[in-house]
Fold this protein.
Amino acid sequence: MTTEKARLAALLLQVLITTAMLSTPTANTQKPKIVQFTLQNKLTYINDGSHVWNLTKEDASISLFLNNSWQTVAVEDVSHQIIEVDVDEDGNPIAYLNIEKWTLAPGENITIQVSYEITSMPRTLPEITLEASGTLKDIPERLKEEFCEDEGCWLTKNQTLRELAQNLTGSEENVLAIVCNFVSWINENIDYKSFDTPLYPNETYQLRQGDCDDQANLLITLCRIVGIPAYLQVGCVYVMGISEETTWSGHLELLEVNVGWHGWATVYIPPWGWLPVDLTYSDFPATQN
């Protein structure tokens, strides 16, 4: 994610228009309902400089959302032909487009558009209690090996963060209780603030500030330090209203209509398995009740 933001920051101007529209539910006589959304992305590259700009394969790529038991996402329409489907370095599906020109002279621009149909199915949420939570010993070793590594931005070897994680854990073995301690500390000590580029967890800790993915990455790091598997998920959420933002010294303009991009942690908590832990979307503080 840091690499992607840094790449886009180098553009002279990029305009992203994202619109999410709630359609009529496909089922209107039974509860819970199946709900369908349309997500439209419009991305415009403008060369407002004095030199020729060569587009890369990544510039002509679109994300393909993951499908699971409660959500399916299909590309409904796209402005350019899809010529290749692959996965990125994190294993997320991605498609590459055959755009009509790969070089932008000063003053030229190109627009890429894609429309997704999203179907959200009803699902049953587990009953989660402290008493029912497993302990650190119940976490499979294979998951610890894969999701407790010091990699990317998750600085599990950072001494300051190690001390924080260990102090908040103490002698506790209950995984849910440990995660609640981490979430409560972040809720009480980290203020929400968005920066042009993502922060490393040690920076979020030092500044006592960070947005959704910054705070999630701090939680993920604390979890990994004590042997609780965790990783970051990002996606979009349906939010009524219009949001406009100009950042990266005017090189990036964002217009979002009825949608917001969001990041959260996914943590392995036995016996339930992988659970989403959202630190900023909810106004309710974390408790152990």
User: Anything to note?
Assistant: The two ends are 34 Å apart (CA to CA). The domain at 136-235+260-277 is CATH 3.10.620.30 (C8orf32 fold). Residues 32 and 122 are 6 Å apart (CA to CA). The chain has two domains: 2-120, 136-235+260-277.
